Amino acid sequence: MAFARLSAILALALAATNVQAAATTAKKVTCPTGQQTANAACCALFPVVDLIQTQLFDGAECGEEAHSALRLSFHDAIGFSIHGGKGGGADGSILAFADQETIFHANGGIDEITDGQTPIWQQTNLTAGDFVHLAAAVGTANCPGAPRLEFKFGRPAPKAPAPDKTIPEPTDSVSSILARFADAGFSPAEAVALLASHTVAAADVVDPNIPGTPFDSTPFTFDSQIFLEVLLKGRLFPGKNNASAPGEVLSPLAGEMRLQSDFAISQDPRTACFWQAMVDDQLLMMAAFKASMAKLQVLGQDTSKLVDCSDVVPVPKPFTQQIKYPATFSKKDVQIACPILPFPNLATVAGPAPTVPPVPGS
Ligand code: HEM
Ligand SMILES: *[C@@H]1O[C@H](CO)[C@@H](O)[C@H](O)[C@H]1NC(C)=O
Ligand SMILES: *[C@@H]1O[C@H](CO)[C@@H](O)[C@H](O)[C@H]1NC(C)=O
């Protein structure tokens, strides 16, 4: 068991180097707009990327809309089963059939981003699937430290809305979450890798009294802080007068929310080592997230018919520092659930324990 886990972690680390080497030196075409790409069919996307950055992401910010665009790509794609009968996957049905999919309980708050994307999508000639998954790749690229996600172009229009009950909820057990991911084709390691997304995330509807409550202290940076902070001993709820809501558990910091599902996954023997391995391993996290997102964003698609337009995705700024414990915290506060891996030595931010400010709405 221990060896199986470690070798899976190692395989992810090796994938990191392969991903970088795959950025080949293939011949490029120069588009009418001046940018270069490996395939002329991708030229049509550069103006769309500019449109998305200006109109949706307030000028290339890693703000609420970028965060929500990433969440939207997950909620769209996960409506899929490798056994069939659960929707078209990464087909943009969540945007094209927003009136039906946004009513699902797990899609609480999603209408804000579908409402935001629809008028911009309609200015383009892209299918809903291409638009949703391009917007997610571009939004993620606005967050320093993120990997440059792939983008495959040419999804057909979605045929129907995805059925309800395909999207995991924070109140779900680890077994049911892992079963849902497995049904969509993802291993426990891949599920944990996808949860790196919660490093650029905040909740609006878990506790509707405190919209924009972040999951870690650095919601504008794609660092591994989420993987550290979810392991810290919980002390309070961010709600008014320490009030809690279903789906959250005690968080270590004022103003921060911890999802019950993130905490359970960090502690479960099936996933704890994958979780802990991400702490302060920026390159492992980037590579694992990139690989799992590449899979997620083409779920249900015939990839032989898609064109690789990854080079239209902006190159994210790097994050090269070591992460730190929030002020007043140290190793003694870590709830270690993976005894077979060493825990990294990290410095602590100086000063009193912080109150994490909310992520501003649009
Ligand atoms: C175990 C599976 C997951 C559960 C239970 C879960 C649950 C949640 C919940 C409850 C929220 C807050 C929603 C709100 O109140 O506004 C949220 C936010 C978010 N989730 Fe997840 N999530 C999961 C997996 C994922 C995955 C796989 C991704 C992407 C790859 C993702 C990306 C995000 C992002 C980016 C946000 C922040 C949205 C924003 O700030 O506007 N989540 N998630
Ligand atoms: C959309 O396609 C039409 C017809 O092919 C074309 O005239 C128009 O310029 C395209 N619009 C964009 C934004 O690419
Ligand atoms: C908040 O409430 C929880 C129980 O619901 C309790 O364990 C914790 O000590 C409280 N924290 C504060 C700071 O009041």
From TrEMBL:
Q: What is this protein called?
A: Peroxidase
Note the SS bond partners.
Answer: C31-C43, C42-C309, C62-C143, C273-C338
Q: Which residues bind heme b?
A: H198
Biological processes, Gene Ontology terms = cellular response to oxidative stress; hydrogen peroxide catabolic process; response to reactive oxygen species
Q: What keywords would UniProt list here?
A: Calcium, Disulfide bond, Glycoprotein, Heme, Hydrogen peroxide, Iron, Metal-binding, Oxidoreductase, Peroxidase, Secreted, Signal
Q: Where does Ca(2+) 2 bind?
A: T199, D216, T218, D223
Q: Where is the Plant heme peroxidase family profile domain?
A: 66-313
Q: Does the keyword Ion transport apply?
A: no
Q: What is its EC number?
A: 1.11.1.-
Q: How is the cofactor bound?
A: Binds 1 heme b (iron(II)-protoporphyrin IX) group per subunit. Binds 2 calcium ions per subunit.
Q: Which organism is it from?
A: Agrocybe pediades
Provide the organism lineage as a comma list: Eukaryota, Fungi, Dikarya, Basidiomycota, Agaricomycotina
Q: Example GO molecular function term?
A: metal ion binding
